[in-house]
Amino acid sequence: MISRVLSPVLRRFPAPSVATQRRVTWIAALTQALIAVTGGVVRVTGSGLGCPTWPSCFAGSLVPVGGTEVPAWHQAIEFGNRLLTYVVVLAAIAAVLVVLRAGRRTELRRYAWALPLGTVVQAVLGGITVLTGLQWWTVAPHFLVSMVLVWLAVQLHVGIARPDDVDVVVAVPSPLRGLLVVATGVLALLLTAGTLVTAAGPHSGSTDVDRLTAVSIPALTQVHGDLLVAYVALLVGLLFSLRVVGAPAVLVRRTWVVVGVVLAQAVVGIVQYYTGVPEALVSLHVAGAAAVTAASAAVWAHTRQPLDASSSTTASTNRDSAAAR
């Protein structure tokens, strides 16, 4: 409905090139990851209640105010994070507009629309988080929704490069696609376990709220570590299998990137655990989680390739162009 209303207006502007579409969608993906990182900074600095009300910062004021018991630097950090939300929304709207103006396929339009809609959901979740005093059970979903939006933004960015009038195939055999589905499920569990580890630690939310105490930090950390090992093992198995079946080189390269990013993230996690969870490393770990999500999403997106770019053996058994449209 909205697309039909916008189309006559958008036709007055020149159609964006594929390069422009990729730049816009890259920015949209970057901002989705960036706001997750700044949200982590808010949490580790204890600035989550720097603006104690929502949607205004203070009662009767949309911006920070002086002369209150809330430190000015806490106000600045939390208000800066809220301002970034507007940048995220603008980037998401820009992605919708370029996809609509370029007349791209339905799949891409769905991904594009998911970004601004998801960002609105995030804003509401952020408000709930503030109004409940930064309870850990509101902070954790807030982060996980960000990872979902990063994943969708990467699907959009990668998909933009594929022509709309060329058949698309799954460029790996079905068993390998299944292996990737399992790996993605383990990644989701890994991210969830990571939020629970944080919920049980000193950076669960506000310093004035209860932590997750139902399970001990060592037990949660063990589960998180076990899931990490499982994910790396699945990635290594995927790498060997991709080489055996002669998968597209870009898919193999992207999988190597995921392995590298995951191992770097593991190092950060281990160091922060044994150094008392310092704030800077927690923020870096959040950035790493976003990087792992984005890199893994790129692997998923690259399993689908234009027909002429895929091997004939794989293509003949994995056609899915009809479903994509």
TrEMBL record:
Bilayer disposition of the protein: Multi-pass membrane protein
Q: What is its main location?
A: membrane
Pathway(s)? Porphyrin-containing compound metabolism
Q: Which InterPro entries match?
A: COX15/CtaA_fam (IPR003780), COX15/CtaA_HemeA_synthase (IPR050450)
Q: Where in the cell is it found?
A: Membrane
Q: Which residues cross the membrane?
A: 83-100, 112-134, 140-158, 179-201, 228-245, 257-274, 280-301
Q: Specify whether Acetylation is a keyword of the entry.
A: no
Q: Name one Pfam family in it.
A: COX15-CtaA
Keywords assigned by UniProt, alphabetized: Cell membrane, Disulfide bond, Heme biosynthesis, Iron, Membrane, Metal-binding, Oxidoreductase, Transmembrane, Transmembrane helix
Protein name from the UniProt record: COX15/CtaA family protein
Q: Which organism is it from?
A: Rhodococcus antarcticus
